[in-house]
């Protein structure tokens, strides 16, 4: 689709693809990133009331931040390629990390329930993630671990299995899900924060 708006990118190697229509724009990569690579440390965040544009950053009712950058245009995917990792108590370590290799031209996507317990604005997901990631157990059960989840309302409405299949989930979401389920959820080993 033809971009209809231009602006100076807030981060090198990333570019917003503006598209006409409400919420149709997206963030694209303009370079390759390796799995585990940090795209950026998050700076310039401001506390805000929960909104479609905010990220949850903790367990409290006021723990929401505006990104104030092109990362606003990161769309949700049920098979995301980045994570917003805001789990450190040191806010200078909050960052965006690649969950798998990202190629030049790929859309940057994250799993919104990785930060959001209850979305301010639920939506029908159009990520189109298909039944591609079959595991041995899921083949036996005839289910798939990463297929599109449909309406995205937040982590509160997802099972432990659905959450733990998405690469990385922030600490307060794991805590809230553990309280809900009265069971412990292990962070996927491959996605754990490498020393940060
Ligand atoms: C923070 S904005 C992301 C950028 C947005 N696409 C835009 O153009 O402003 C979040 C909104 O984008 C839309 N969105 C994000 N991911 C989506 C997806 N996988 N399917 C459908 N809509 C999505 C939803 O309307 C959601 O409330």
Concise overview:
This is SET domain-containing protein. The protein is α+β, with helices and mostly antiparallel strands and 196 residues long. The protein has helices at 136-141, 160-164, 171-181; strands at residues 14-17, 26-29, 38-41, 46-47, 54-56, 64-66, 75-76, 82-85, 95-98, 109-110, 123-124, 151-152.
Description:
With 196 residues, this protein is of the alpha+beta class. It has a single domain, classed as Beta-clip-like, CATH 2.170.270. Helix content is 11%, strand content 18%. It contains three helices and twelve strands. The protein has helices spanning 136-141, 160-164, 171-181, and strands spanning 14-17, 26-29, 38-41, 46-47, 54-56, 64-66, 75-76, 82-85, 95-98, 109-110, 123-124, 151-152. The protein has a three-stranded antiparallel sheet, with no helix packed on it. It has a three-stranded antiparallel sheet with strand order 4-6-5, with no helix packed on it. The protein has a two-stranded antiparallel ribbon with strand order 1-2. The chain is globular, with a radius of gyration of 16 Å. Bound molecules: S-adenosylmethionine. Residues 23-26, 52-53, 72-73, 75-77, 121, 123, 125-127 line the site of S-adenosylmethionine.
């Amino acid at each position: 689709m033809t971009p209809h708006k231009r602006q100076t990118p807030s981060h090198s190697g990333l570019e917003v693809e503006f598209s006409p229509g409400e919420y149709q724009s997206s963030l694209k990569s303009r370079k390759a990133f390796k799995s585990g690579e940090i795209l950026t440390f998050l700076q310039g965040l401001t506390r805000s009331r929960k909104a479609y544009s905010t990220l949850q950053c903790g367990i409290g009712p006021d723990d929401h931040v505006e990104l104030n950058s092109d990362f606003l245009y990161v769309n949700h995917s049920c098979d995301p390629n980045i994570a917003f990792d805001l789990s450190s108590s040191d806010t200078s370590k909050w960052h965006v990390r690649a969950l798998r290799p990202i190629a030049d031209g790929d859309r940057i996507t994250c799993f919104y329930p990785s930060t959001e317990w209850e979305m301010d604005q639920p939506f029908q997901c159009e990520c189109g993630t298909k039944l591609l990631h079959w595991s041995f157990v899921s083949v036996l059960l005839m289910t798939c671990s990463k297929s599109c989840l449909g309406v995205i309302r937040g982590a509160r409405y997802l099972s432990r299995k659905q959450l733990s299949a998405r690469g990385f989930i922030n600490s307060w979401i794991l805590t809230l899900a553990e309280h809900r389920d009265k069971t412990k959820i292990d962070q996927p080993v491959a996605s754990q924060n490498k020393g940060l």
